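pasting for ref
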Amino acid sequence: MIKVLLYLAIIIQFIAMYYAIRLVRATKYSAIWILFIIGFMVLAGERVLQLLAAYGRQVPDLAIVWHDIVVSVCVSVGVVLLDKLIIYIERLNYHRQMASKRILTAVLRTEEKSRANFSKELHDGLGPLLSSAKISLSALSNGEMDPSRKEIFENTLHVVEEAVRSLREISNNLSPHVLADFGLARGIQNFIDRVSALHNVKILFATNLKANRYDTDIEVVLYRVVCELITNSLKHSGCSDIRLSLSTSRDELELQYSDNGRGFNPQAMMDCGMGLSNINSRINTLNGEFNINSSKGKGMRASVKVNVRGALRAEAEPTSPRELRQRRKASR
């Protein structure tokens, strides 16, 4: 039985050694892998010596001891090198994650900059043209017109007014001036007021931020997250009530959001879209936490937590009467 077991052990070790040697090139001739191969070879040689001893051959005890020493050295050095390799891989993964976050942050900043530029072009370029057209049409109202012409005039004036209103809405959605001038709480409240005027949904918003200002990236990301959550609820949930709170405590900014809609499978929606993966990516750029819970017929709840240590900044005061007037106009 001992001889059979020794034969079996030798066969298994030589098979393992064969496949290990085939993987040397795949492991880029790693010193760790080569040491393990040497260990396999020495162990196989030791089993051969034990098999010879089982057949009554004289095997020096010193040879067995040296085999054990070589195996111990190979395994010990391999484990030490493996520990260093694991540390290197962890460091490499960390740098890769940081690089991914920096790339995503740069993409988001570029997106916001493009939004701001496009908004400015719309507001400063197309806006004055529509306003001039409205003024010119209004000047025509001083003359006498027959009923048919008057109806055409009023319809045209109404279309121009709607175009001006739509332009202002699009410009504000692209780059909310209230967010840049007055901060996160005021920007979210402004968005909620505009949404409430267009939809028959009750939206309750509570916050203790007051006039606190934070890093621009934090304010923009959280503002976009709130907009995305509210838009998803209005489009997909069929809810009649939305509640959200934004609070700060020490070094943490926390957003709590819920609606009473039809609910959904969060994991399935995260995989297929609906903006949840986009929200998660944005929060990851801030090293924050995003959690969402929902089930069919029970609405949904979401929470966002962001560390804002060192990100609090004082609200910039208007430096001129003109800037003060612009801020008041934007808030309206």
